[in-house]
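> example.struct
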């Protein structure tokens, strides 16, 4: 495969997306930039881009092996990956196993309460509107996804949760919650897209419940870089 970047199409908060010499593929480039609260809080997490690239690609490859279709094609370098070109479904799909973050805030369920069963939430991807939570009726009424797509997304999200929960528990990590995004291929299939990383998941040490994810940045808890390194270390047994 000889995929080369052409022009930059988009710069997001944590990644850049480039067109390539092949119309079927994009190249994503992971940045060290970090934002929170819809971009209000800005910072840098040294080494984050390389870690998120590696962690995401490992997770995507693992999920593919277990039958989840993803956009992952090939890791090009420390920060760059070839992905299939998709049209992103404008929803953030959040799965939760343990109460935390906005779930705790909204519903008054203390952080750390293990949920009786995993939950799913959909948020509209729109920073200006602060990614409002939407339900299935809103999604169908506004045509953000079709009924069939929504069913596929929901089934895939729960399957991904089961696979990831088991994987991280073996590393002594509790998968508290995470956010997924999906994309449509040109032939209309829905596949997993975006990233799976400490930016988009809450990871807690299974014994101490220490936070090993972006919450350390969001909440100014310190040792942010170390948390990302720790995830890398537990997954690959090495430092970046
Ligand atoms: P929340 O508790 O703030 O709603 O976050 C739920 C999960 O989604 C958590 O693992 C962090 C992740 N997330 C993102 O990936 N992007 C976002 O913009 C937000 C708000 C959360």
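> example.seq
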């Amino acid at each position: 495969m000889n995929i080369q970047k052409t022009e930059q199409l988009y710069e997001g908060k944590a990644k850049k997306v480039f067109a390539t010499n092949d119309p079927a593929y994009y190249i994503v480039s992971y940045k060290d930039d970090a934002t929170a609260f819809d971009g209000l809080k800005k910072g840098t997490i040294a080494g984050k881009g390389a870690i998120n690239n590696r962690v995401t690609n490992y997770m995507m490859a693992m999920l593919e092996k277990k039958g989840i279709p993803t956009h992952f094609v090939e890791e090009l370098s420390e920060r760059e990956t070839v992905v299939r070109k998709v049209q992103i479904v404008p929803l953030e799909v959040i799965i939760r196993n343990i109460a935390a973050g906005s779930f705790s805030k909204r519903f008054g369920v203390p952080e750390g309460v293990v949920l009786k069963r995993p939950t799913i939430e959909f948020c509209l991807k729109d920073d200006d509107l602060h990614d409002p939570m939407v339900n299935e009726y809103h999604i169908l009424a506004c045509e953000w996804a079709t009924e069939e797509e929504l069913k596929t997304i929901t089934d895939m999200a729960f399957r991904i949760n089961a696979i990831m929960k088991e994987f991280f528990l073996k590393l002594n990590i509790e998968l508290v919650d995470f956010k997924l995004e999906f994309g449509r291929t040109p032939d209309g299939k829905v596949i997993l897209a975006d990233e799976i990383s400490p930016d988009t998941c809450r990871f807690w040490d299974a014994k101490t419940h220490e936070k090993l994810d972006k919450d350390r940045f969001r909440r100014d808890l310190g040792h942010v870089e170390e948390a990302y390194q720790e995830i890398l270390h537990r997954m690959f047994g090495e430092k970046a």
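> remarks
Residues 175 and 203 are 5 Å apart (CA to CA).
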